[in-house]
Specification:
The chain has 2 domains: about 170 residues, Chitobiase, domain 2, CATH 3.30.379.10; about 220 residues, Glycosidases (TIM Barrel, Alpha-Beta Barrel). Helices cover about 35% and strands about 20% of the residues. The N terminus is likely disordered. The structure holds 2-acetamido-2-deoxy-beta-D-glucopyranose (NAG) (5 copies). InterPro entries: Beta_hexosaminidase_sua/sub, GH, Glyco_hydro_20_cat, Hex-like_dom2, HEX_eukaryotic_N.
Length: about 550
């Protein structure tokens, strides 16, 4: 860096060069920015054997030992980095206010399972009046995770010693729904990669893995009640997720405060269901009055198909404990239904005049099943836009109109009394050369022409990495740190939306994620514009540090 600073000295970048922070001077920023955070110049150094204790009145939530272990490991990793510095310690204890040897955690109440109503709030106090003891108070175990995450991010090195400034944080999420979609149909994703993604979500205080598990390319969900669906519909019978594996992933996510919401998208996007779904499952398409051998969406005229879905969802309901189920409903092509004479006859008999009404028959069937299973459900926006009748409890996920027309859809959805999740501007699978996180960062989910009542119906948002061009080889690199921009928009105060002040913080946070083994790409700023961006002084070693990920 010395070389670069000298090289650029004298041009307009001197200011930026001054701003470059060598590893031992990292600021200890917290990402996403807490709702309230007061940092002072006073600092404490950390004892390498820092202890975690629960206050006697706190209930013993079952995931606490795992949380403590993980954060103890992460905090210890800072000592490895500090001692690997080539410079000698020249620390003088007198300048520090004290040595932190204990993190005391108080929990009000165990929730045990993350849910839509989870309470993620916490307060964190470092420094006076008790410099040797950090006090973390959380409403539930999720706030313990978030508080320890914030604390760990605050560690920076002063005189080569891991230190934390005296700080008071009061923090809670702005939106309860902070999701991320992965797609395991276009490409199979190894379980270790899914777990690493869950870990990264948790570090970024995102709380939902939206698992788009099946689609037209493959059906990797291995059902026990309908094993032929994956046996015939997966790429190979080895590239499946067994119920045992899924339960393991869900438990892994629970330990990190992340919900797993599965999506079984119907009636479109279902080609891979065809072979295992039986001869009546998909609609045969006709040309010139004859079946042409191709198939369209699920055939909504047969009761057997609803029965199959009920059987499947009854099992899915037991496997995925979250109270939400994503029912899909996007991009249903009507052409094949239109061509099929049995469907035409069914529609005439049942007085259906539009294909949206036919779609409604199917969606109503899915909604009835979800209702019987006491599941809440999310649907893609088409279900609403096509005029399918859905209850007010339905959550509508808005995904179209990246250019800005999503605002009209958000307005329409909330005006009709439905809850909404915004995804349109956060399709991270759409990539181009250069920096794009700033575009994600300035999005405001309530920025549509709605009333205060309508804004209350915005549950949050979801970023997405559709799977056409990613698999285990590149998905994490492509998601991070771009998704961190979305994470901050969904967690932090509405006013935290300026890329300028966020840029250095995000650079630092990306570097910390690297140090923890997450292969987050250098995508914060073009180093031709400013050479100090993208450089990360921490040794990145995904093979050595992978244990932080899964
Ligand atoms: C933390 O404390 C150090 C040492 O006093 C000081 O240089 C630094 O500015 C403080 N950080 C913040 C963010 O205030
Ligand atoms: C979380 O719990 C705290 C008290 O511990 C309460 O003040 C806050 O309103 C709760 N938040 C939510 C979203 O329920
Ligand atoms: C058929 O539907 C139309 C409009 O949807 C309605 O006006 C008509 O009464 C219905 N006829 C029967 C027989 O249900
Ligand atoms: C659904 O929301 C609309 C708009 O807020 C409202 O008029 C209607 O009464 C609600 N329906 C139910 C069943 O709550
Ligand atoms: C927002 O609503 C107001 C009042 O209904 C209207 O005057 C204005 O044109 C709308 N703005 C947009 C951008 O639609």
């Amino acid at each position: 860096m010395k070389f670069l600073s000298a090289f650029f000295l004298g041009n307009a970048l001197t200011n930026a060069a001054d701003r470059f922070l060598p590893p031992w001077q990292y600021d200890g920023t917290v990402w996403p920015l807490p709702q309230s955070m007061a940092v002072t110049q006073e600092f404490q150094i950390l004892d390498a054997n820092i202890q975690f204790v629960l206050t006697p009145e706190s209930p013993q939530c079952d995931i606490i030992p795992d949380i403590f272990q993980r954060y103890q490991d992460l905090i210890r990793s800072h000592f490895k980095i500090a001692s690997s510095s080539s410079k000698k310690l020249k620390f003088s204890a007198s300048s520090a206010a004290g040595i932190i040897d204990t993190i005391e955690v108080k929990i009000i109440n165990c929730e045990n399972y993350p849910s839509q109503n989870m309470n993620e709030s916490y307060t964190l106090q470092v420094g006076s009046p008790t410099p040797e003891k950090v006090e973390l108070t959380a409403s539930a175990e999720w706030g313990v995770i978030h508080g320890l995450e914030s604390f760990t991010q605050m560690i920076h090195n002063i005189d080569y010693r891991p230190s934390v400034n005296s700080t008071m944080i009061t923090d809670w999420p702005r939106f309860p729904f902070r999701g991320f979609l992965i797609d395991t149909s276009r490409h199979y994703l190894p379980i270790s990669v899914i777990k690493a993604q869950i870990t990264a979500l948790s570090w970024n205080k995102m709380n939902i893995l939206h698992w788009h598990i099946v689609d037209l390319q493959s059906f990797p969900y291995e059902s026990q009640v309908l094993p032929e669906l994956s046996f015939l519909g997966s790429y190979t019978p080895l590239h499946v997720y067994t119920i045992h594996e899924i339960k393991d992933i869900i438990e892994f996510a629970r330990l990190r405060g992340v919900r797993v919401v599965p999506e079984f998208d119907t009636p479109g996007h279902t080609d891979a269901w065809g072979p295992g779904g039986g001869p009546k499952f998909l609609t045969p398409c006709y040309r010139n009055g004859e079946p042409d051998g191709s198939h369209g969406p699920i055939n909504p005229i047969y009761q057997e198909n609803y029965d199959l879905m009920r059987k499947l969802f009854t099992e899915v309901n037991e496997v995925f404990r979250d109270s939400y189920l994503h029912l899909g409903g996007d991009e249903v092509p009507f052409g094949c239904w239109k061509s099929n004479p049995d469907i035409t006859a069914y529609m005439a008999k049942n007085n259906l005049t539009t294909y949206a009404q036919l779609e409604q028959v199917w969606v109503q069937g899915m909604v009835d099943i979800a209702h019987d299973l006491k599941k809440n459900y999310v649907v893609w926006e088409e279900v609403f836009v096509n005029g399918v009748k859905i209850s007010n409890e339905t959550v509508v996920e808005v995904w179209k109109g990246r250019s800005g027309t999503w605002k009209d859809t958000m307005n329409a959805v909330t005006k009709s009394g439905h809850k909404a999740i915004l995804a349109s501007p956060w399709y991270l699978n759409i990539i181009s050369y250069g920096v794009d996180w700033e575009g994600y960062y300035v999005i405001e989910p309530t920025d549509f022409n709605g009333t205060a009542e309508q804004n209350k119906l915005v549950m949050g948002g979801s970023a997405a990495m559709w799977g056409e061009f990613v698999d285990g080889t590149n998905i994490l690199q492509r998601i991070w740190p771009r998704a961190s921009a979305v994470a901050e928009r969904l967690w932090s105060d509405k006013s935290v939306n300026q890329p300028g002040p966020a840029r250095w913080r995000l650079n630092e946070w990306r570097c910390k994620m690297l140090a923890r083994g997450l292969p987050a790409q250098p995508a914060i700023q073009n180093p031709n514009v400013n050479p100090n961006f993208g450089y990360c002084p921490y040794p990145f070693d995904p093979f050595n540090n992978a244990h932080y990920l899964f």
